[in-house]
Design a protein that fits this description.
alpha/beta, 26% strand, 9-stranded mixed sheet
Length: 175
């Protein structure tokens, strides 16, 4: 499945592996991009939404068998900053080596020094949607190419310091 096209000739882009940070402003396609990337993963996936976080005790129960959860997917992670839910997810990923797919608001992420966003940023792999300034890549240690990126799903894929402009595939049309 093609998850995005990019580069100079809009060719299919190889999906990123390992932990990936998805950042962008509201309406930029963060949740859809996260969903597309998660759909490409093998193994068991735990999904958490910062808008409707699970009860801490329920989450603790779901995490009891860490071997079965190879990827933790967290949408709106900036809403979980400093919570027990965030701490449990970080502990799980650290102790099991699970990959983190984390989406957050770009502006909120820039000021994060602990938690899911900086932990995921250490992998230096991110999709930054609709960046407006080169310095917004600072969370993953790059200066971003910017320009006409105000379309949902359009942004920059960063892999270990290398930037590629991308357009994430559109959601399927409603019948």
């Amino acid at each position: 499945m093609v998850w995005a096209v990019g580069g100079d000739v809009a060719e299919p882009v190889t999906p990123p592996d390992g932990s990936v940070l998805v950042l962008g402003p509201p309406g930029s396609g963060r949740s859809w991009t996260l969903q597309v990337l998660a759909s490409l993963r093998q193994g068991a996936t735990l999904r958490v939404d910062g808008l409707d976080p699970p009860d801490v005790d329920d989450l603790r129960e779901r995490l009891k068998d860490p071997a079965c959860l190879s990827t933790v997917v967290v949408d709106d992670a900036h809403l979980l900053a400093g919570t027990a839910v965030e701490d449990l997810l970080l502990d799980h990923a650290t102790s099991t080596g699970a990959d983190l797919l984390v989406a957050a608001d770009l502006e909120s992420a820039a000021g994060s020094f602990r938690g899911l966003v900086p932990a995921t940023a250490r992998a230096r792999c991110a999709v930054l949607l609709q960046p407006e300034a080169p310095a917004q890549g600072g969370v993953v240690g790059v200066q971003l190419p910017v320009g006409d990126l105000r379309v949902p799903g359009r942004g920059v894929l960063v892999r270990r310091g290398r930037c590629t402009r991308v357009q994430v595939v559109s959601p399927p049309a409603a019948p």
